[in-house]
Amino acid sequence: MDSGLLPKSLVFFTLFLFITTTINAASANDPSQPILRPLGKEKVTRLRFYWHDVVSGKNPTSITIVPGPSVNSTTGFGSVQMIDNPLTEGPELTSKQVGRCQGIYASASQQDLGLLMSMNLVFTEGRYNGSTLSIIGRNSALHKVREMPVVGGSGDFRMARGFALLRTHWLDMNTGDATVQYDVVVVHQ
Ligand SMILES: *[C@@H]1O[C@H](CO)[C@@H](O)[C@H](O)[C@H]1NC(C)=O
Ligand SMILES: *[C@@H]1O[C@H](CO)[C@@H](O)[C@H](O)[C@H]1NC(C)=O
Predict the structure, then answer these.
(1) Is pTM, for the whole model, over 0.85?
(2) 129 in helix, strand or coil?
C-alpha cells in the first residue's frame, strides 16, 4: 500500500468538503440556487381537500367554453370547460378555502365519460401559500375512485411528482354541480 495515499485523499476530501460547504452557504438564502435534496431524501407530503365544480347559479367557477359538437354524444365528446374552482378544507363549500384549482377539463372519450384534466392547484393558506401543483390526467368521472398523476409543482412543491385520488363526494344531477374529494401524495424538494 502506498503510504502517501491516505494523506493525499484526505486533502482532496477536505477540499471537496470546503467547496461544497461554500456553495451551500452561498445558495442557502437564494431561491434561484436551491440546495437540492438527493433522490430518496425528498419530502413526502399528503394533502386532502375538496374541489367544488360550481356550474350553476350567479357565480359559476366552471364554465363551458366549447360545447360538445354532437347533440347525440352521450359522453359530451369535444366539450371544453374552463375552471377556477375553490378548494376547501372540508366538504362544504362554506368551509375554509385553502386554494383554487385553475385549468381546463375536456371530454376526450367517445366510448365512455373520460375527461382530460389539465389543472394547476394554487394554494393560498398556511405554509403552502403561493405554492402550486400541476395535474394532468384522465378522469373517468363516473368511477368510484379515479387516479391522476401530479406532474410537477412550484414553491414548496418544487420538482413534485405524485398522484391524486378522486372520489365524488356530492353530485347534483339537475345542475351538474359537484364536490370531489382529492387525496394527494407528492414527493418534492
Ligand atoms: C341523432 O340521432 C338521431 C336518432 O338516432 C338521428 O336521427 C340524428 O340524425 C342524429 N343527429 C346527429 C347530429 O348525429
Ligand atoms: C398568502 O400570500 C399572499 C402573498 O404573499 C399574502 O398577501 C396573503 O396574505 C397570504 N395569505 C395567508 C393566509 O397567509
Answers:
(1) no
(2) coil
- What is the atom index within ligand 1 of the atom nearest the CA of 72? 1
**Domain boundaries in the chain?**
1-37, 43-188
Asked if CATH classification 1.10.10.410 holds for the domain at 43-188, the reply, yes or no, is: no
Q: How far is the CA of 50 from the centre of ligand 2 (A)?
A: 20
Angle ∠(123,125,130) on CA atoms, nearest 5: 45
End-to-end alpha carbon distance in the chain: 42
Q: Which atom of ligand 1 is nearest to the CA of 71?
A: 13
CA distances from 182 to 19, 70, 101, 185 (A): 44, 31, 11, 10
Query: Looking at the predicted structure, is the pLDDT value of residue 30 above 90?
Result: no
Read off the pLDDT of residues 69-109 as tens digits, 9 standing for 90 and up: 877 788 999 999 999 999 999 999 999 999 999 999 999 99
